[in-house]
Amino acid sequence: MARNICIIGAPMDFGQHHRGVDMGPAAMRYTGLVPRLRDLGHQVIDNGDISVPTRDSGEIKSKKKYLKEITTICKQLHKAGKQVIDNGDFPLFLGGDHSIAVGTVAAAMDKDPAGLIWMDAHGDFNIPETSPSGNIHGMPVAALIGEGHESLVKVGKPGSKIDPENIVMIGQRDLDSAEKKRLKKSGITVFTMREIDEQGISSVVNKAIMKFAHLKRIHLSVDMDALDPVEAPGVGTPVPGGLSYREAHLLMETIADSGKLSSMDLVEINPILDIANKTAELAVELILSALGKRIL
Fold first, then answer.
1. Which of 97, 174, 179, 223 does the annotation list as catalytic?
2. pLDDT value, residue 67
3. Active-site annotation holds for 120
4. pLDDT category of residue 216 using cuts at 50, 70 and 90
5. Which of 156, 118, 153, 124 is CA-nearest to residue 140?
């Protein structure tokens, strides 16, 4: 199905300690994202990047770790994404670290309920009181259900943007101890790598889509560290034992087959740590699979 796709870049790395993921949008564009989407029959407009301030290269002194900057950026993303959705088009957000999802998902959930698939090695469900690092890229899902930093909870419509019952996480394998307890009580469905190993990715993703049988739309949030570092070495926080190349593609293809994918973000590519642009190339291939590319 041909779509009108609007690309919105968010070249920021305020949400985590390591530098470099701000170059992710440029790496995906360099890899030919726009012409390759057009080759699938889509109409594509690249809206460029939102305005992101320069990050001070010095030590982070504030316990809130760039909260003001991240909040401002997420507000921009919400506004830009909402405009695209209101026009009936498909917003494709390119990150940047995963804290951008506070804005991208807020835009996707602005009008009516939708499902959220969170593909990530991590849960990103910490709040300031439970986070060992204080890094905000480990907190966006909590903010989206109305918990954590007040300024992030207020991005878009104030308060919770999504019912935890409408969130499915896939690929988790590195969770903080307090975060585990929070997730177990949350109502969020979590398919860790153990469930994927035991059940197979096809069963897992089909169960995820069935969770959203009552919903018309799905937002897909892809952190490239969901994949095994062998497949995706250039990520901000790599964790061994992740999704394989084909598991990730099957996940994308099955979501595409559902016909419900209405918005997407892809984050955490760090070209500084990459090998011959391997991770950016895979990211583009996954986007293409999510948007209709097939083997046959």
1. 223
2. 92
3. yes
4. very high
5. 124
Q: Which pLDDT does position 15 carry in this prediction? A: 57
Sequence-ordered list of residues with C-beta below 8 angstroms from that of 245, at least 6 positions apart, any chain = 227, 231, 282
> With a threshold of 0.85, does the pTM exceed it?
yes
196 in Cβ contact with 119 (< 8 Å):
no
pLDDT digits (tens, 9 = 90+) for 11-56: 998 856 678 899 999 999 999 999 999 999 999 999 999 999 877 7
Q: Following CA atoms 44, 105, 225, 290 in sequence, which dihedral angle do they give, to the nearest 10 degrees?
A: -40
Domain residue spans in the chain? 4-290
Residue 61 has pLDDT above 60, yes or no: no
* Known active-site residue 223: yes
Catalytic-residue membership of 112: no
Mean per-residue pLDDT of the chain: 95
Query: Catalytic one among 13, 49, 97, 120?
Result: 120
100, 142, 103: which is closest to 10 by C-alpha?
100
Active-site residue (options: 78, 137, 149, 249): 137
42 given a catalytic annotation: no
Q: How far apart are the first and last CA of the chain?
A: 15
| Best CATH choice for the domain 4-290 from the list 3.60.40.10, 3.40.50.300, 3.10.290.10, 3.40.800.10 | 3.40.800.10
